[in-house]
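Margin note: ligand = uridine-5'-diphosphate.
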Amino acid sequence: MTRQTTELAPGVFDVDVVPVALERLAPLLSPERVARMRAYAAAGNELLGGRTVWCVNSTARGGGVAEMLHTLVAYAAGTGVDIRWLVLGGDPEFFAVTKRLHNRLHGVAGDAGPLDAGARATYDATLARHRDEVAARVRAGDIVLLHDPQTAGLVECLRERGALVVWRCHIGLDERNAHTSEGWAFLRPMLEPAAAFIFSRTQFAPEWVGRDRLWIIPPSLDPFSQKNVDLSAHDVDDLVHRDGLVVEGGPLPREGRAVLQVSRWDRLKDMAGVQAAFAEHLGELPADVHLVLAGPEADGVADDPEAAEVLGECRRQWASLPAPARDRIHLVSVPMDDLDHNARTVNALQRWATIVVQKSLAEGFGLTVTEPMWKSRPVVASAVGGIRDQVEHGVSGLLLDDPHDGAKLVEALAWLLADPGRCAEMGRQAHLRVQDRYLADRHLIQYVDLFAQLIAKGDA
Ligand code: UDP
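Resulting structure:
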C-alpha cells in the first residue's frame, strides 16, 4: 500500500510508493491471463529502460482517482518500473475553478461561475507555482500521466521539457451540451500539445482529440486492498456498528436489511435524490429495509470544495422528513484521518448491504459500482457514463434509464428485495464481470501498449 506523503516544495507532494507484487493477482486469473500479465510486465520494463513514469493528480485521498492510483502505482512499482506519484495542492479559488470544470464536463453548470479570463488567471496562478517544481524533476524521455482538469496546465511545460505527456480524464458526458462545450473550450488550448489522451469511454472524448491520440482505458480495482479484501462477518459487524459513524438517524440496524449508496458528497451523485425517493415511496418497500447514505467526512477531500454544502443539504433534508422515514434513513460520515480504516469501513458497509445503489446523474466510471459488484452485491444504478459499461442490465445489476426517476429506483429495489435468489444470482454475475474486465492486469497491459506507441512515436 502507498501511504506517506512528503512535501517536496510548497504544495507539491510526493506520495510514497510501496511496491506490491503483481503476482498476488495470479490466483484470481486463468493460466492464460497470468502468462499474458507476466509477459507484459517484462515487456513494459524492457520498453521503459531508464525512463521514469510520473503520475500527477490533485489529491492522495478521497475519490476514484486517488483510489485507483494507490493500487495501480504500487503494482507498477512491483514489476520494477520506476514510477512516482506527485500530488499538487491548490488554494480554494483554484479548486473552485477546477470543480466548475468538473461539473461542466459532466454537463451541468455547477456553481454557475464563469470560465472566463479571470477564471483562467486563477487557474494559472496555482499552476504557475508548481510548473518549475514539477518540470525540474522530470527528465527528457520520461512519461508523465496527468490526471483530470487540475493538471491540464502542465502539459505544455512538460512537453517542452522533452517528456512524453499523456492527459487522462476520468470524467465526461456521453452527450454534448453548452456546459461541456464551455468546459472543453477552457481546457483545449492547454491540452493540445499532449501526446495522447485517455478517457474511460469513447463518448467522453471531445471531437478535436484525433483517434490516433485517443486511448480508452477504464479504471480497475484491487481485490487485495483494504477497500476490497475479504472481511470476516465479525469484522463487518464491528466496523458497521462502531460508534460515531452516523451523523443523522439512529444507529445502523442490527436486524433487517440495508440499501446503501457510498459517494463523495457531490450533487452529481444525487444522495439527496436517493433519500427523497426512499422517503416518498417508503410504503412500497418491506418494513425491515433501511437506507444508508455514506460519504467521506465533509472536509476530508482536498479538491472537493462543495462537499460540506452538499452534506449540509442532505442533513437538512433528512431533518424535514416525516418520522417513519427518519427512523429508516441513516446518513453516515466516514472518518478520513486513517485511510486504511476509512477503506475498511466502506468495505464493511458494502458487504453488509443487501443492495447497493448508485443513482448518479453523471458518472465517469464509478468505482462505487465496481466495488460492491466485486463483493457479489446486486447494484441498482443509473444508466449513465461508465456505469453503462460495468452493469449489463438484468444480468449483473439493474440500470435505471432515467437517473431522475425515484419511483423507478424504488420499484427496482422492491423487485430485488422480494427475491433473495435473484439478488444472489445477480451478485454472482456482478463479481464475474469485475473479474473479467476490471482488474489491474488488464489495466497495466493497456498502459504498456500505450507506452510502446508513445515511445515509438517519440523516437521516430
Ligand atoms: N470512497 C471512500 N470513502 C467514502 C466515500 C467514497 O473511500 O466515504 C471511495 C469509494 O469507495 C470509491 C471512490 O471513493 O473508491 C469514489 O470513486 P468513484 O469512481 O465512484 O467516483 P469519484 O468520487 O471519483 O467521482
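Residues 63-65, 67, 227, 262, 264, 294-296, 334, 342-343, 346, 365-368, 371 surround uridine-5'-diphosphate (CB under 6 Å).
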